[in-house]
Amino acid sequence: MSKVLFTKKSIMLFLVFTFGVLELANAQSSVYVAGYENKKYRDVDVSVAKYWNNGNPVSLTDGKESAYGISITVENDDVYVAGATTNYDGVSIPTYWKNESPTVLNTNGVSAFANCIIFKNSDVYVSVNKKDWKLTNVDYWKNDIPVSLKQEQAIINVNSIFVDKNNIVYAAGNHNIGTGDGFINTRAAYWKGEKEILLSDAEHNSEATSIFVNETDIYIAGCESSQSKTGGYLEGYVATYWKNGKAIYLTDKKRYNFATSIYVSNGDVYVAGYGSDKETNNETAKYWKNGNEIQLTDGIGYSRANSIFVNGNDVYVAGEINPETADPDILKMAFSDTGANKIAVYWKNGKLIALTDKKNDASATSIFVK
Question: 8-34+41-47+62-67+126-369 belongs to which CATH class?
Fold first, then answer.
């Protein structure tokens, strides 16, 4: 991938003219965005879990140990954020915050993230994604009580959860066969109640990242590998969503693309994601409306779209950008002194709104509009 270098002056011009003016959020809006921002603690970069309310940051942790905000929802005046904290042994502990007050969720020592939170009929549901392919007896919590979707000889990772008007719980995620060196493959799946429905065949690795239920239709976003797992190196992933189990492919098999979030409004299907730009091949934020791609940046620098929310005629997408580089190896370092930090942003109808500056690495992971 190409590396783009800028002076401080050219960076500002690039941000203004290429991505649009990085403006503060409209104080009249009720836009809530979860994420994280790094800070220095004892000369070490530490991630602080936080959310932004109309652009105003609210820190959820003190920055002594890394923590992340991953999902956000709002009920009445209560703000719920799901994510993870880190203990002194480096184990990620699923946590959610209600109005900045934390609740730690037990996974019996298994490192994991709370990656989706919803509020329905006075109940709080939180899904969990386990790290390191380890077994645990919880796939989501309802009011802090663990619920298992255990499948024989499989490890379940739930990435998204939805509860319909009849209180039926839908979960989307991965059905993983094997652990560690014995890993075989990952299959996109969803659960209606305790019943598992696999979305792809065993010959292609796939992943389900987000679920939305609209009346009787079940929509799931994710991706599917472009080659059979028996065909050697996987050259690409196809951004995909499934409607009632039928795959709709949003991209071709020539490049890699991922669908991260899905929302249905007035019969229109919106899917956020990211993937290689057609011209530069750089990782680029985008979304699709009814299968039509809308690119959110010009593809010169790095960008990702992590979450989508539709409010009336307005489309909101949360994500991250770095206009200075498209090199993922530099971005993985995530050190402030590299000057290659990601900026937490969201787009409203394609217009960029910055939540942080380039001084510290940051990301916007989830968005909710009230």
Answer: mainly beta
